[in-house]
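> call design_seq(struct)
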């Protein structure tokens, strides 16, 4: 990989031949900025920054992507927790107090979210983002279906409606097939105003969603196709290595063409350079979704110490594990403190993964784990308390290419890695060519 160093990321665009020469039907120099994503009447730089939770894709990160002309996502994962930290509210404390009597029980069937608290938390986050929005881009929210919260339909409807009430530009439906999600909000006045998209990992999943979308006469405005190299939870089984993002995207594009459906397709997962992005854009994609490289930006919500772990990671530090209490594969760093933990189930303050009957795979694993001779619970190896560990930033989810982050910045004299800004990473994607990565001006050690 070639590296170049520039005084400012805005200079990346200088020096590239914008009047490109045609060679065998392809451009000799092609960059992301030569393309645009069109969603209805809106036009964007074809870069979508994914909604990394919990609060990894912060409001500040999303707003920067928007200011630069792209689309930035916030995530609604654990919105009450994020709102408490951001606004000083007490949603988590109140929920914990409300269900304190079940703390020592494994039956969590009575633990539910207060829908008004949930609505207020989601509304506050979205309104905060939209009130500070600048630039020609968009601010979207990533809404996960699998956050069942003990009442799947009720809590999902609340989260979706609150995002629309808050004026969000778009909603990306993720972590599930969302066969009933559109129906939950079809009576909302912004149902056909806001952009709505779906994340899928196969043509089969897209077909299932489209059947439900046609029943409410509301096709998605875009489709994000997430491949097996993405970060966090994967839409694949243990055979994820057998799939390639290029192949899945080609199948989705062919299917939509056969069905005469002009829905923009946005690949995601493992797109590390602007040249990677251009390859998909040339092949018919409308934009790309990227995330991993933004984890070591100043605006990212990870703590600085965790950002340093991401920047220093090697390929052998990345694992795809089945420890998630969702039952889906999870890509994370092997240094994640959640692994081998024996924390008591934290359903009273959190409980985002609880099923409608109060069950969770971590509850089962915790109950089955024996105690040592001193009466201390042994490490729970099969599952993790996902809610607690995400809340405490102890699950280091990452994309497959996290180990390449060290090649995008400088290692300083004190051994730490220089953090970037969203603008530096975004603009590098936008203007770089031939897999070049523009390094920032090197700072002295802190």
């Amino acid at each position: 990989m070639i590296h170049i160093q520039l005084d400012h990321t805005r200079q990346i665009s200088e020096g590239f031949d914008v009047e490109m020469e045609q060679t065998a039907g392809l451009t000799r120099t092609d960059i992301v900025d030569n393309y645009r994503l069109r969603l209805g009447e809106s036009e964007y730089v074809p870069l979508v920054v994914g909604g990394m939770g919990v609060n990894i894709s912060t409001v500040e990160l999303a707003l920067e992507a928007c200011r630069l002309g792209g689309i930035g996502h916030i995530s609604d994962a654990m919105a009450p927790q994020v709102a408490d930290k951001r606004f000083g509210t007490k949603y988590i404390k109140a929920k914990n107090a409300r269900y304190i009597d079940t703390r020592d029980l494994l039956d969590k069937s009575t633990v539910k979210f207060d829908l008004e608290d949930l609505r207020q938390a989601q509304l506050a986050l979205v309104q905060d983002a939209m009130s500070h929005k600048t630039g020609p881009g968009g601010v979207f929210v990533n809404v996960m279906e699998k956050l069942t919260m003990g009442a799947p339909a009720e809590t999902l409807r609340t989260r979706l409606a609150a995002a629309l009430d808050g004026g969000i530009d778009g909603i990306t439906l993720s972590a599930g097939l969302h066969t009933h999600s559109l129906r939950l909000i079809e009576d909302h006045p912004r149902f056909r105003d806001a952009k709505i998209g779906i994340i899928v990992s196969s043509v089969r999943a897209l077909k299932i969603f489209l059947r439900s979308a046609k029943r409410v006469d509301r096709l998605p405005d875009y489709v994000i196709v997430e491949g097996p190299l993405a970060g966090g939870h994967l839409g694949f089984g243990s055979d994820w290595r057998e799939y390639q993002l290029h192949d899945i995207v080609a199948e989705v594009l062919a299917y939509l063409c056969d069905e005469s459906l002009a829905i923009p397709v946005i690949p995601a997962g493992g797109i590390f350079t602007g040249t990677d992005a251009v390859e998909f854009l040339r092949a018919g994609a409308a934009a790309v979704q990227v995330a991993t490289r933004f984890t070591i930006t100043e605006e990212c919500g990870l703590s600085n110490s965790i950002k340093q772990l991401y920047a220093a990671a090697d390929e052998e530090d990345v694992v795809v594990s089945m420890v998630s209490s969702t039952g889906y594969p999870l890509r994370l760093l092997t240094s994640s403190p959640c692994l081998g933990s024996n924390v008591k189930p934290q359903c009273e303050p959190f409980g985002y993964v609880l099923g409608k009957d109060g069950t969770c795979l971590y509850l089962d694993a915790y109950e089955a784990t024996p105690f040592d001779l001193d009466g201390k619970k042994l490490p729970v190896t099969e599952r993790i308390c996902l809610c607690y560990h995400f809340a405490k930033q102890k699950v280091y989810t990452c994309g497959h290419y996290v180990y390449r982050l060290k090649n995008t910045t400088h290692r300083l004299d004190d051994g730490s890695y220089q953090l970037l800004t969203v603008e530096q990473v975004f603009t590098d994607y936008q203007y770089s060519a031939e897999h070049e990565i523009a390094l920032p001006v090197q700072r002295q050690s802190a």
